[in-house]
Design a protein that fits this description.
CATH topology of the largest domain in chain A: Rossmann fold
Order of helices and strands of chain B: HHEHEHEHEHHHHHHHHHH
Radius of gyration of chain A: 23 Å
Distance between the termini of chain B: 25 Å
Oligomer: heterodimer
Shape of chain B: elongated
Strand order of the largest sheet of chain B: 2-1-3-4
Number of helices of chain A: 11
Number of domains of chain A: 2
CATH superfamily of the largest domain in chain A: P-loop containing nucleotide triphosphate hydrolases
Radius of gyration of chain B: 29 Å
Strand content of chain A: 25-35%
CATH architecture of the largest domain in chain A: 3-Layer(aba) Sandwich
Chain lengths: 317, 378
């Protein structure tokens, strides 16, 4: 182990597939016991980054270390110290829960005398009592995910990489899954978890926003919410929403507009003058609307603001 | 290398094979089917060549000649014909492979000169079979002419002259009955093992890729060597079972004489099984779909093993470049050893060359297979 205070570090981490740069000079440091949420749209480079950190893909440039080991030069040492849950379910469907656990315990060289106790813990944690001998392919999504997490933590790794562990899992099961993640973090396990659910981002100590292979922002959820969006955010209820969105985007002073549930969120360069103007011009176009109300941005607003920047830059050219 | 990881890998693989009907069918059903098909279907023996006879004379003597052919057991008379035209038709239709035409003055010429002459015609479409049939006919005629000579000598009151006769009595060793089955069936064992072995392991790695389990597996500290050996252990047990089944069937069902020692046979079989499993494993590492891998395994083993192993076609009769290629066909060494152990009872010390070749093969495959598998995605 080196004397670094961080358990996971990446410096200028880059992955190119031919002409396509999937991950572009990514810098990230994660402290021991921290839960970091990796957030970004599909294809942003979340899985590629996690795979490089697990030693499954060789970085094209830059370096990364996990638990004190270099991912390109000591991938086997890295693998011995991590637990990994891939985005796609990848346990053996034709084996039972217990057989999967026994296999991974063997592969991670969990001592025989500890196996019973640890597998009992995993079965209980995953809520799989009574299903120990069911073939894994017959289980529902939530159980599968929790069993996969169980197989990844059987050997008590100090670092966990979870790639969209809750995708396709029903809300209650997701909630339960996050409780587990926090229980492990409390025991000192360092966790990087990717997700595209905005509500899950709130459960993380810190969030790393990634877009088009680049790290767009890093910070705690409250830090990110207070981030300067480059304008003031307003919310208004209006109908019809689609027409309102189109109209709002055409107006001067509107930096950004997007639909949130049944309302419109609009980023204005100058709220005091642009707010009433927006309302008036919507009304002129036969769109019924409230008076825009100033709000504090949610994480999703920040996220939309950050990831839509390149597109806006593109169009202003 | 960790024994715990190796065992975990082997046990998991065994469970998966047990629950995969496709693997089980290849492992257990295929040897049975192939042993029956190849054991019975591949025979080089030619017996009861269909023969037509056009006897223009119908005398006692001409009938005696015709009977000679049938009595030999090599020919069966399918039809008596009445004209040259009928002979041609019978050959055209494939009714017979050979036709004997006995002239109308057959016994008259014999009585006058002591010599007989008649015609045999062969259909040489299948040159090899016809060659053998001509050999049979020559044997029948040689015997008949000796008898005819004695008969003529008796009729004319002279003693048959032994001058100028060579008394030729060939002895055949190792396969005294000249039964081609004894030669073929040991080769069949090699062919079956080569086909099944490569088929079985061709699924071993591709299954993990296809089902998406590979990503999890390579994120663990398991080493490529542990993956390879762990996966090969259960397949080796299946291969050993299949080999035992084929060998027992060869000895007790097909009654191929077994004259060698069991230890040599088992050593050779174990080595060969490892080689064929290793080849399937290598294919599986390179081709990530199960179907693709099994097709390639079939393609790469079927033709070379059946054509170039010496199982049916003699290697030393092939053109030099083909003979050189056959040196790469691992099955030829096992075929050589099986035949030697079965029929000649050759011991280990006389088989060092084919043993050495297989050991070399096994070493190269183990090295390449262990290094071909990389714990990386894409």
């Amino acid at each position: 182990m080196t004397g670094l205070p961080y358990v996971v570090t990446a410096e200028g981490l880059t992955k190119r597939f031919g002409d396509f740069t999937a991950v572009d000079r990514l810098d990230l440091s994660i402290a021991k016991g921290e839960v970091v949420g990796f957030i970004g749209p599909n294809g942003a480079g979340k899985s590629t980054t996690i795979r490089m950190l697990c030693g499954l893909l060789h970085p094209s440039a830059g370096r990364a270390s996990v638990a004190g080991f270099d991912v390109s030069r000591q991938p086997e040492m890295v693998r011995a110290h991590i637990g990994y849950m891939s985005q796609k379910f990848s346990l053996y469907g034709d084996l039972t829960c217990r057989e999967n656990l026994r296999f991974f315990a063997g592969i991670y060289r969990v001592p025989q005398r500890e196996f019973e106790e640890r597998s009992r813990f995993v079965i209980e944690m995953a809520g799989l009592e009574g299903r120990e001998d069911a073939l894994v392919r017959t289980l529902a999504g939530g159980w599968k995910q929790r069993l996969a997490l169980g197989c990844a933590i059987l050997h008590r790794p100090p670092v966990l990489f979870l790639d969209e562990p809750t995708s396709g899992v029903e809300p209650q099961a997701r909630r339960r899954f996050w409780d587990l993640i926090h229980r492990m973090a409390a025991e000192g396990v360092t966790i990087l978890v990717s997700t595209h659910y905005m509500d899950e981002a709130e459960y993380c100590n810190r969030i790393a926003l990634i877009d088009a292979g680049r790290l767009a922002a890093v910070g705690s959820p409250s830090d990110l919410r207070q981030r300067d969006l480059g304008g003031e955010l307003f919310e208004l209820a209006c109908a019809p929403l689609g027409a309102a969105l189109e109209a709002a985007r055409q107006l001067p002073g509107v930096l950004e507009a997007s639909i949130f549930a049944d309302k419109l969120h609009v980023l204005l360069s100058d709220g005091a003058s642009a707010g009433p103007e927006l309302h008036a011009s919507l009304e002129r176009q036969q769109i019924t609307s409230d008076i825009p109300r100033r709000i504090t941005p949610s994480l999703e607003d920040v996220f939309v603001n950050l990831v839509s920047k390149p597109a806006r830059r593109e169009s202003s050219r | 290398m960790s024994a715990q990881r190796l065992l975990a890998m082997a046990f998991k693989e065994a469970l998966q094979i047990w629950r995969d009907p496709r693997s089980l069918a290849i492992a257990l059903l295929l040897p049975l089917i192939q042993m029956v098909l190849l054991g019975y279907g591949t025979s080089l023996d030619i017996k009861r060549v269909p023969l037509c006879i056009f006897d223009q004379e119908r005398s006692q003597l001409s009938r005696a000649l015709a009977e000679r052919f049938v009595a030999s057991g090599w020919f069966s008379a399918v039809r008596d014909l009445g004209s040259n035209r009928a002979v041609r038709d019978a050959m055209d239709h494939g009714t017979c492979l050979a036709a004997v035409t006995i002239p109308v003055d057959f016994s008259r010429v014999f009585a006058a000169t002591g010599k007989v002459s008649f015609q045999t015609v062969f259909d040489a479409t299948d040159a090899n079979t016809t060659n053998i049939a001509i050999g049979y006919a020559q044997g029948v005629i040689a015997q008949a002419s000796a008898e005819f000579r004695t008969r003529w000598a008796g009729m004319n009151g002279v003693s048959p002259s032994p001058i100028g006769t060579v008394d030729y009595q060939p002895r055949v060793w190792f396969n005294e009955g000249l039964d081609s089955r004894n030669f073929i069936v040991p080769g069949v064992v090699a062919v079956i093992l080569a086909l099944i072995g490569a088929q079985l392991t061709s699924l071993a790695i591709s299954r993990e890729w296809e089902r998406g389990t590979m990503e999890q597996l390579i994120s663990t500290p398991v080493t490529p060597l542990e993956v390879m050996l762990g996966k090969l252990i259960p397949y080796f047990l299946i291969g050993a079972f299949d080999a035992a089944f084929c060998l027992v069937t060869a000895i007790f069902w097909f009654q191929v004489p077994f004259r060698g020692d069991l230890a040599t046979l088992l050593c050779a079989t174990a080595l060969f099984t490892f080689v064929v499993l290793g080849i399937g494993y290598m294919i599986s590492v390179w081709i990530r779909s199960q179907l693709g891998a099994s097709q390639v395994a079939l393609l790469l083993t079927m033709t070379p093993v059946t054509m170039l192993s010496g199982y049916t076609f003699a290697i030393d009769q092939m053109p030099a470049p083909i003979q050189a290629i056959s040196l790469l066909v691992y099955a030829r060494y096992y075929v050589t050893m099986l035949r030697a152990v079965f029929l000649k009872g050759t011991g280990f010390s006389d088989l060092l060359l084919p043993f050495g070749a297989l050991v070399l093969y096994a070493g190269v495959i183990a090295f390449v297979a262990a290094h071909a598998f990389r714990k990386r995605l894409a």
